[in-house]
Design a protein that fits this description.
It is a single chain. This protein has about 425 residues and is mainly α. The chain has two domains: about 150 residues, no CATH class; about 200 residues, Ferritin. Helix 6 runs antiparallel to helix 7.
Amino acid sequence: MAHPDPKPTDRAGDRYARELERHLDWLDSFTSTALGVLSAASGIYTYLGVRTLLDDPGLWTTFAALAYSIAVSVGIFVFWSYLLRLLPAVRSAASRVGLMLTMALGSVAIVAMSSWLNAAALAGGAAVETHMATTVQNYQSALERAHANAVAGQSLSRDVARVRQSFQDLSEQEAGGTLSGFSGRGAVFRVLTQKSAELQALEAQLLGLGEPIENTFTQGNAILSRMRGTSVEPGPLEDRTVRFSEDAVELAGLITQLRQLNPAPLVVRAAQDLSDAVVLPELDGATAEMRAGQSSTINAVLTLVAQRADTLSTGASEVMALPPPDEALYTPMSAADAVIAYAGNFVPAWAGAISIDLLPAVLVFIIMVVQAAIRTGRGEGHSDDRMTVGELRAALAASDLLRQAEAAQVRPQGQAHIRPFEVPRDGGA
């Protein structure tokens, strides 16, 4: 039974499909080479990333890093070669979904074993420098906070001086007989001068802390300046990291020293002692009336001492309640760890590292789209009934060759030809 003539639209779709196939054939001639180049490039950057993780510069370390990078290159090449061939060829929805899930899983594996190492090779040094710069900022904040707290504690000396001055004024008034009504340097005067002397000693101690606090703060700023220079200066990163670590340890010690120089806890204890530790002198009034006046005045002075002690203790507690400096601690990081920790600062490097590994996925989708267009243009049910002129000529030539071969097999082989009227000769004739 003869097949009906193909419609013009079918012939156009078939020509469209064959044109796309010719393009795919040409592209397929160098797709494997391009995929190999991408895999090799990823392997090179993976090797550089692995070397940043391995501290030992020996031969075995180099061999291990090289073996890992080669394995990554081969794995990437084989994985994408499989998908480039199989995913565009399958037709059922279940097969496509299965291979798509496989591609997603393989992409995650590639990122895990290669892309982050590529990012470490691309931006590892810059990430370590970013980590050092961030550490400098943290140390600077901690140093300034510790210095501010220490200065606030040292400024309590003004409150102590004000309270001391009030007791000195009261003692002068007592010497003139204004307080107890009896002039002279008796029991009340001795109580007042006792507390004034305690406050004067505390004031001198607070004032003596001003110079150590400023010297420590100046040393810390000098170390911070040196750390900033270390984080950006040219040179081997490993040497700079060692020097940076040494400066960080020294600066952490200075911050701790500033916290210890904060005199606020000392003022709290001194204020408590000011009200609790009172040595009452013997009343030395000549008469009972004078001794009663001295006792009454001493009780009033003790009440005043307790009030002044509470004032000093409240001020010192406010200083102690100030936010403490953050715990500044420098932890050295490898290039790979720094790239992960500061991934947000190196988005272009991460994009390049991932793209070099996952770019073949775009080729897979392109081939899937083209294969779907080929099937649509050619049709699923009539693709075997259509031939081009060249294919028809080739088929006719092959048919001629087959007929010639069949004729050669049918032709008689080795038959004898006897001439007419020829009589065979015998030996006796």
